[in-house]
Write a structure and sequence with these properties.
5 helices; rod-shaped
């Protein structure tokens, strides 16, 4: 009989822990309030008290992070600016080379046309020299 009472009591405590557990973080940050029976449960339950202590510790750690400042390493701003300038210069060089490629292609096309025209003139003039003059 006694073991049944102990099991029933353990089941009630477990059920109470589960019903209170979702509200414990809100209790710590002030967004939730426990009713009288839940407060009595937490006051007598070591598991819930330990969980509340963990939430308090977590909240303190988060609050300390909010106020903590990290000093900027010396030379960081200079390094960032130098990298940005270098990236800008590389982009400008790429843009200039892309523009030059178009000019080079245009120049090559003009040179090829001139070479073709010169070759045509040479071929025509050679063809005339090799012919015998017609009797006339």
């Amino acid at each position: 009989m006694r073991s049944e009472r102990v099991r029933d009591q353990a089941a009630r405590i477990s059920a109470s822990c589960e019903s209170v557990a979702d509200r414990l973080p809100g209790v710590i940050d002030g967004t939730a309030v426990l009713d009288r029976s839940d407060r009595r449960h937490v006051e007598g339950c070591l598991r819930c008290q330990a969980e509340l202590a963990q939430y308090r510790k977590l909240l303190r750690a988060m609050q300390s992070l909010r106020s903590a400042t990290v000093p900027v390493p010396s030379g960081l701003v200079t390094d960032v600016i130098a990298h940005l300038e270098a990236a800008g210069e590389r982009r400008a060089v790429r843009a200039a080379l892309t523009g030059r490629k178009v000019a080079y292609i245009g120049g090559l096309a003009a040179a090829a046309t001139a070479a073709g025209a010169g070759a045509a003139i040479v071929l025509v003039s050679r063809g005339r020299k090799g012919r015998l003059p017609l009797a006339g």
